[in-house]
Amino acid sequence: MNIELICIDMDGTLLMDQQRVAQVDQEAIKYANDKGVHVAITTGRVYNCAKLYAETIGLKTPIIASNGAFIGGTNGEQIYCNPLNLSDIKQFMELTQEEGLLSYLTANFGIISTLELPDTNIYKVLNQTLPDQQKIRLEVISTLDELAPFDGEVLKGVCVGQNADQLSRIKAKLKESCPHLEVVSSWNNNFEVMRKGSSKGEAVKQLAEYLKVSPDQVMCIGDSENDLSMLKVAGIAVAMGNATPEVKEVADYITADNKNGGVSQAIYEYIK
């Protein structure tokens, strides 16, 4: 089987520490590109953030962002977009805020929140390293009524908390009360909501069709629950060494962890 498309998650997979890509992984991605293989960043992060990394690595393949709610070309062109509607956004925000949890919304340009994000937030940390024209936009609104200008732009809601039982309870409540939403986790301290039909798996299928690549010629690499859908549709499913047990269970191959060249090991294993 010849692999023609590799879809790679960012956090916990391509990134060593939420910011840096290992040199060995960059070299392996270039090796795959030189072999004629498409390599696509496939992430829960916002498009503008993923685009920065794609440009740094030298990728030209379209980007899957916001857990599959958006697919965009490296020049900003829209291939697919499935935004949340305002009523679902308000229900998500109200429920999580009633529980005293931090929640925010993502759009291609960045973040919308009703509270200032903590300095440890990945986008705030990243912005410290970027010139002003590249910084991820962080919008703080006073009330949910101020969401109207962003109608059609919000792709994902994120809820963050340290109490795993509380997060699981609210996550289950949302799944029951909002069956038209996708609800997944990308870390053990969060869950994320998208409009039904938005998942990395659906986006990978759409991207493969766009690139005229057969599903069995796709390799996906990931580590968390939000990667499961793409691993299940891939011809080759690769779990990182640091992946959750449920991700490893569906994998065809378990590679090294994200701090020890797991992406490069997988690429060299299957791209000859």
Provide tags for this entry.
single chain, 272 residues, alpha/beta, Rossmann fold, Hypothetical Protein, Haloacid Dehalogenase-like Hydrolase, Chain: A, domain 2, 6-stranded mixed beta sheet
Written description of the protein model:
The protein is an alpha/beta fold and about 270 residues long. The protein has 2 domains: about 5-80 and about 200-270, 3-Layer(aba) Sandwich (Rossmann fold), CATH 3.40.50; about 85-195, Hypothetical Protein, Haloacid Dehalogenase-like Hydrolase, Chain: A, domain 2. Helices cover about 30% and strands about 20% of the residues. It contains 9 helices and 14 strands. A 6-stranded mixed β-sheet has the order 8-7-6-9-11-10. The radius of gyration is 18 Å and the shape is globular. The protein starts with a strand and ends with a helix. The model has no long low-confidence stretch (mean pLDDT about 95).
